[in-house]
Every structure is written in structure tokens, then in C-alpha cells.
Amino acid sequence: MNLFDLTGKVALVTGSTKGIGKAIAERLAEHGAKVVISSRKADACNQVAAAINETRGAMLAVPIACNINYKEQLQALVDETHAKLGAIDVLVCNAALNPAYGSMSQIQDDAFDKILGANIRSNHWLAQMVLPDMIAKRDGAIIIVSSIGGYRGSMTIGTYCISKAADLQLARNLAVENGPHNIRVNCIAPGLVKTDFARALWDTDEGERRVSSGLPLRRLGEPDDIAGAAVFLASRAGAWMTGQSIIVDGGALA
């Protein structure tokens, strides 16, 4: 048996039209999963799904646009996934936002609420919506993309770090509640990855050199560096792992 085989599995990946989410969706499809490509923009979803299907030579990817900030849109995302692919086996909560940089003493209430709503509450909502599928099958994997920011404070993205720390606890609690149903819930905590989402933190030669020089591996992450951890957690290879976080950070926390 191939421990990483996902043939026949249905995986829903939020924020999967670029960056880490896109890489995760591509690698899940490479290992045989049918994947839902989702983000706010329908045209981006269509393009990524079409590229995966062309590469794999099969209709493995389905595009479904959704704004994770709205519960009714999340429910529609789950309902349409059911209609097109069936019950959900793997949920990857990757979509997140961070509209504020600077001291927490200056953050506006609406930005604070947006960060916690998108990065915590939406993951909670989605878990509630897909868990019945997994409970019925007595099998399933939920993966929340957290951050090493959840393990330490920050001078510039403090509220984001709070939300990612909460995701670690969300995974632990869901793991405890749903473990008796053979459902595994884990986090991946990336370090600084070269994505559009984190561009403000690395998008100068000097900035990239400064950050990467402090890492044991001496380079920033690429989206594909995170995707392998998701394949592991989604597959039989990770069958006895739950309530944990895999830190993938080039050694930043070492």
C-alpha cells in the first residue's frame, strides 16, 4: 500500500488559487485526490482548476468561488462540493487575511475583528459543516494552516499571530472531540514563505537577505515546501497523528 495515496478522496482547499493553498491543491491532486479549488475570484478558481486537470490528464479539480467571511457562502461551498464530488474526506483551511501592520495599540476594531473572523471563526464554521461527512464515514482529516507566528509575539503582525495561535488550539480541541470518530485534526505552521500574502515581509533583496540569513537553511520557504506536510496529514501516512502542529520554517524556531 502506498501510504501517500489519496485516490478517491475528496479534498476541499480554501485559498487555493495561489501560494501555499495552490501548491497544496496541486500536490493532493498529484496523489489522486479530487480537489475543490476555492477563493473569492471565480476566474482565478477556473484557471487553477483547468491547469490541474490538464496536468493530471483527468477531471480532478473543480472550481467553486467563495468568500470565507460569510457563513452562507461557506455553506454553499460545502453544498456544491457535495453536489459535484460527494462527501468531503479532507478539509484544508488555508485562506486567511491580515489587513493590518504595526503595533496592536494602533489597530482599528474593524481590522481586529476581520482578522479573527477570517482566521479563526471561518475555520470553525467550515469544520462544523464538513464533520458530519467524516463522522458518517468514520474517517477524515482536517488541516488548518497556522503560522510560526502563533508561537511568538510580533512587533508588526500581533493580531495575526493571535489568530494563528488560536488555530493551534482549535485543532487540538477538534482533535479531542472528534478522535473517537477516527477524524484527525492538525495544523501546519509555516515560517516565512515567498507568497503574495507575505510579500510585504520579503519583497526586497535586502529584506530577503536579512530574514533568510537568520535561518539554519539560509533561504525563505516556497509554497511547495509546505505542500508535502499537507499530503502527509491527509493520507494514511499520518493516520496516527492528531491534535498536533507540523512546523515548516527552515529552522526559524530552532
Q: Would you kindly provide a written description of the structure presented here, covering whatever features stand out?
A:
- It is a single chain.
- The protein is an alpha/beta fold and 254 residues long.
- The protein has a single domain, classed as 3-Layer(aba) Sandwich (Rossmann fold), CATH 3.40.50.720.
- The chain contains 8 helices and 7 strands.
- The protein has a 7-stranded parallel beta sheet with strand order 3-2-1-4-5-6-7, sandwiched between helices.
- Helix 2 links the parallel strand 2 (34-38) and strand 3.
- The mean pLDDT is 95.
List strands and helices in order, with pairings:
Blueprint: E1 10-14, H1 19-30, E2 34-38, H2 42-56, E3 61-63, H3 71-84, E4 90-93, H4 109-137, E5 140-145, H5 158-178, E6 183-190, H6 199-202, H7 205-213, H8 223-234, E7 245-248
Parallel strand pairs: 1-2, 1-4, 2-3, 4-5, 5-6, 6-7
Helix pairs in contact: 1-8, 3-4, 4-5
Q: Tell me the β content.
A: 5-15%
Tell me, what's the shape? Answer: globular
- Poorly predicted ranges: none
Oligomer: single chain
Q: Any idea of the CATH topology?
A: Rossmann fold
The helix-and-strand class reads alpha/beta
- Count the DSSP helices: 8
Bin the helical content.
Answer: 40-55%
Please write the string of helix (H) and strand (E) elements. Answer: EHEHEHEHEHEHHHE
CATH class: Alpha Beta
Q: How many angstroms does the end-to-end distance come to?
A: 34 Å
- What CATH architecture label applies? 3-Layer(aba) Sandwich
The total tally of domains equals: 1
Secondary structure tally: strands = 7
Q: What is the alpha-carbon Rg in Å? A: 17 Å
